[in-house]
Amino acid sequence: MKNLSLILLVAIALLSSCKKNDENACNGDECNYSLSSNETAGTAPSNIHGTHSLSVSYEGAGSPYTMGTNGTFTVESDKLTVEIDGKECITLINPYQSSPSEVTFVDNCRDNLKYSVSESSSGALNEVNVSSLSGTFYCQFN
Q1: What is the pTM (predicted TM-score) of this model?
Q2: Average pLDDT value for the chain
Q3: Which of 42, 104, 127, 140 fits as disulfide partner to 97, beta carbons 3.0 to 4.6 Å?
Q4: Which residues contact 76 (CB under 8 A, 6 or more apart)?
Q5: Selection from 71, 72, 88, 99 nearest residue 31 by Cα
Q6: In a 10 Å sphere around its CB, with 0-12 CB exposed, 13-18 middle and 19+ buried, how is residue 108 labelled?
Q7: What stretches in the chain show pLDDT beneath 70?
């Protein structure tokens, strides 16, 4: 009986650890942006790829996110998964190059926001700026 209990305990622990790994997968909306004629396709630098837990450190007028709001941003070369506290995640595909050190992912499918992901001079993730589709700055996650 002890062996059966131990086997069940180990099986539950393994299943729980698998579930935790799957929690990072976004099963929400996916938005594939079509570049306009004046935009150049962008690629996030490989050194900022990965999952970053950030908080709003600056909030502007009209921001959909308030100071201290937590977000998880998973950066890939041409994909950004956004998970903000209290909202369903969304995956944004096909960014444009908005500056030499920044690519912008556009959510024109659900929330009508832009997420600009920038690299610091040291090569690390600098911040994620959120703005309206027309370019009004809303907030900064870092």
Answers
A1: 0.82
A2: 86
A3: 42
A4: 44, 49
A5: 88
A6: middle
A7: 1-24
Pairing state of beta strands 90-93 and 29-32?
parallel
Q: Give the contacts of 85 (CB within 8 A, at least 6 positions apart).
A: 69, 70, 71
Reported as type and span, the H/E element at residue 22 is: helix 2-22
- Cβ burial of 113 (10 Å; 0-12, 13-18, 19+) is buried
Handedness of CA 51, 60, 64, 103 (dihedral sign): negative
For the chain, state the CA radius of gyration. 18
Strands 125-132 and 79-84: unpaired
